[in-house]
From TrEMBL:
<dbReference type="InterPro" id="IPR011990">
    <property type="entry name" value="TPR-like_helical_dom_sf"/>
</dbReference>
<protein>
    <recommendedName>
        <fullName>Tetratricopeptide repeat protein</fullName>
    </recommendedName>
</protein>
Length: 579
C-alpha cells in the first residue's frame, strides 16, 4: 500500500470508529514517511492521530500532535520570513506557494486539535478563543474551503457537546444553531459530510432530550440511525439507539428504555467508549431500580461510577454518587448515604463548572436522607434495616405501604422530629431558591416547563417534609407562598431574557445565565412583545402578629445560593381587615 493510500485508508477507518486499527496503520507508516522526507505526509499523519486521540480521550497524545504540527509549521514560516538558517532552507523542497498551502491547511488542523482539547478539559473560554481563531476568512487556497468548513463544524460539535457535558446547555445554543444550519444546508455526499451529519445529529438530539424537547430529537435520531446503517457504522448506530433509550426514559417508557439499551450496549462496550458505556450503566440501573431490583441497580451504578472516575469527570461522579445513595437510603444505611453526599459535594467543589443550582439539589438530597432516617424512627414500614441482606431489602422496598407506627411522645417520635427539622433546614431553602427562577423566565411555555420539571419536585419535597414534621404553620406558609405565585409588571419584556429562556435547560436569574445547569424548556411562543411580565413576589405576611412568611428559609436561600426569593418591596398583607 502506498503512503497516500495508507493515509486515506486510516481516515476511512477513523470515520467508521475503528480508531485502534487506524492508529496502528498510521504508526506503521511513520518510518516510511520519515525516510521519504515528506513533511506534508507527516503532518497529515500527526493530524489524523490527534483526532483519534481526541475521540478516545488520550489528551496527552492530542497535545503532542498539535505541538509537533505547530513546530513544523513554525520552521516553514521562518523560511518564508527569511529568518531560517541556510541549512534549514537547503533541506526544504517546497516552493513558497506550497509552504503557504501547508501552513494554512495544517495550521487549521492543529487549531481544531487545540479547540477540541480545551473543550474536553473543561476550558470552555479557551475553546471559544481557539474556535474563533479557526473561523478565519482566508480564501487564498480555494481547494481548502471544504476541509475548512468540515473542521469548523466538527469543532463546533465538540465544543457544544463539552458544554452540555458540564450542564452549560444555554451556552451551547448558538453552536448547535450553526451546526444544524450547516447540516440542513449541506449537499455533500462523501464520508466526511456524513460523519458530520451523524455526529451533529446525535449531539443535537441529546441536547434536545436533555432540554425536554423529545419530539425534536426523534427525527434527528431516525435520520442518524438510517445514515449510519447505510454506511455500516456500527458504533454510530448504537449511539443513536442509546439516545433513543434516553428519550424513552424521559418519556416514562421503562420497557422501551431497556430494549434500546440492551440493543446498544454490546456494540458500545466492544468499542470501549467509556462515557457512553457509563451512560448505558446509568440507565440500566434506573430501569432495574424502578422494577425493585436494588442490588442489580447498585451494581450498574457502581460500574458507571468506575468509568466516570477513569475519565476524571467530577460533575458526572457527583451525580452518580447521589444516585447510588438512594440504594443506601432504601437499605436503611443512612450514614453511608450521607458519606456519598459528602463525596458528591467534594466533587462539586473540585469542578470549575459547578453552579448554585447543583449545590441546591445536593442540599435537597441531603434533606432526603435526614427525612428517610426520621421516617424510619417513626416506624415507616418501607424503611430498610442495615443488617438485612439484598433479598430482604428488596422485598421490603417492594411491599412498603407507607404506614407509620410510632406513637406521639415517645423517644423515637422526638428523635424523628429533630431529624425532620434538619431536613426542612436543607430542603425548604433549596426549593425556594430553585423556584425563584420562574420570575426571570420571560417565555410562558418555558416558565411552565421550568416550574413543572425542575422546581416542582423540590417544592413537593418541601411540602412533604413540613407535613411529616407536623409543622402546620410551615405548611400554611408554603401554601401561601405557592398560591401567590408572582406579580405582573407593566414593562416591555426583556429581549435578552426572551432569547435565552426559550431554549435553556436549567434557569437561574439572567445575571447567572452562563452558570446554569439543566432546565426543561419548550419552544418559544409566537408573541414575546407583551407589555406585562411575571415578577417576583414582595414579602408576604399572613398574620398581623408575625413576620413575613418563610422569612428564615428565604434568608437561608440567599445566604447559601445567592438567590433572593422575594422582591425588595413593601410587605404584602394577605389577611382581610374587618370593618
Amino acid at each position: 500500500m502506498s503512503i497516500p493510500g495508507g493515509l486515506e485508508r486510516a481516515r476511512h477507518l477513523a470515520l467508521a470508529s475503528e480508531e485502534t486499527t487506524a492508529k496502528e496503520l498510521l504508526l506503521s507508516f511513520m518510518p516510511q514517511i520519515e525516510a521519504a522526507n515528506r513533511d506534508d505526509w507527516m503532518l497529515e499523519a500527526l493530524a489524523q492521530l490527534g483526532e483519534l486521540y481526541l475521540v478516545r480521550t488520550a489528551y496527552d497524545g492530542v497535545r503532542e500532535g498539535a505541538r509537533r504540527i505547530r513546530e513544523c509549521l513554525t520552521t516553514y514560516a521562518s523560511i518564508l520570513a527569511g529568518g531560517a538558517t541556510p541549512d534549514v532552507v537547503g533541506k526544504s523542497t517546497m516552493t513558497p506557494v506550497e509552504m503557504r498551502h501547508v501552513i494554512r491547511r495544517y495550521g487549521r488542523r492543529a487549531g481544531f486539535l487545540e479547540t477540541g482539547l480545551a473543550a474536553a478539559m473543561g476550558d470552555h473560554e479557551g475553546a471559544a478563543v481557539a474556535l474563533s481563531a479557526l473561523d478565519d476568512d482566508d480564501v487564498e487556497f480555494a481547494d481548502l474551503a471544504e476541509e475548512h468548513t468540515y473542521l469548523l463544524t466538527y469543532a463546533r460539535i465538540v465544543c457544544a457537546e463539552a458544554l452540555c457535558d458540564d450542564d452549560l446547555h444555554v451556552r451551547s445554543v448558538a453552536l448547535w444553531d450553526s451546526v444544524v444550519q450547516h447540516i440542513l444546508a449541506s449537499s455533500e455526499s462523501g464520508e466526511s459530510a456524513d460523519n458530520l451529519r451523524v455526529l451533529g445529529g446525535i449531539g443535537y438530539a441529546r441536547f434536545c432530550i436533555e432540554t425536554g424537547r423529545l419530539e425534536q430529537a426523534a427525527p434527528w435520531l431516525r435520520r442518524v440511525e438510517a445514515r449510519a446503517e447505510a454506511r455500516g457504522w456500527e458504533l454510530a448506530t448504537a449511539r443513536a439507539q442509546l439516545e433513543r433509550g434516553a428519550a424513552s426514559w424521559s418519556a416514562g417508557d421503562r420497557v422501551g428504555t431497556e430494549a434500546r439499551m440492551y440493543e446498544a450496549y454490546p456494540v458500545i462496550a466492544r468499542y470501549a467508549r467509556a462515557n457512553d458505556v457509563s451512560r448505558c450503566w446509568l440507565f440500566f440501573g434506573l430501569t432495574r431500580m424502578s422494577a425493585g431490583g436494588l442490588k442489580v441497580a447498585d451494581e450498574c451504578w457502581e460500574n458507571a461510577e468506575r468509568h466516570w472516575r477513569e475519565l476524571g469527570k467530577p460533575f458526572h461522579i457527583h451525580r452518580i454518587l447521589l444516585q447510588r445513595s438512594w440504594i443506601a437510603i432504601f437499605r436503611g444505611r443512612y450514614a453511608e448515604a450521607v458519606d456519598m453526599v459528602t463525596q458528591a459535594r467534594a466533587c462539586l467543589d473540585s469542578s470549575p463548572r459547578s453552579s448554585w443550582l447543583a449545590y441546591a439539589r445536593l442540599d435537597d438530597h441531603l434533606g432526603n436522607v435526614w427525612r428517610a432516617e426520621a421516617l424510619a424512627d417513626l416506624g415507616f414500614d418501607g424503611a430498610g434495616e442495615p443488617d438485612e441482606d439484598w433479598e430482604a431489602a428488596e422485598a421490603r422496598y417492594q411491599a412498603g405501604s407507607g404506614a407509620i407506627r410510632a406513637q406521639l411522645g415517645t423517644e423515637q417520635h422526638r428523635a424523628a422530629m429533630e431529624k425532620l427539622k434538619r431536613a426542612a433546614e436543607l430542603k425548604v431553602p433549596a426549593s425556594l431558591a430553585v423556584d425563584s427562577v420562574r420570575y426571570s423566565v420571560a417565555d410562558a411555555e418555558a416558565r411552565a416547563q421550568w416550574a413543572a420539571c425542575v422546581s416542582a419536585p423540590l417544592l413537593a419535597g418541601a411540602f412533604a417534609v413540613a407535613s411529616d414534621w407536623e409543622n402546620s404553620d410551615l405548611v400554611s406558609q408554603l401554601i401561601e407562598y405557592h398560591s401567590a405565585r408572582g406579580t405582573f409588571k407593566s414593562e416591555q419584556a426583556d429581549a435578552t431574557a426572551a432569547a435565552w429562556s426559550s431554549v435553556s435547560t436549567a434557569a437561574a436569574p439572567i445575571t447567572d445565565v452562563d452558570e446554569l445547569a439543566l432546565i426543561a424548556a419548550g419552544p418559544p411562543i409566537a408573541d414575546d412583545t407583551g407589555l406585562t411580565r411575571l415578577g417576583p413576589l414582595p414579602p408576604l405576611r399572613m398574620d398581623p402578629t408575625t413576620g413575613p412568611v418563610l422569612d428564615h428559609y428565604r434568608a437561608l436561600a440567599l445566604e447559601r445560593y445567592g438567590q433572593c426569593v422575594t422582591a425588595a418591596e413593601s410587605v404584602w398583607e394577605t389577611w382581610e381587615t374587618a370593618f
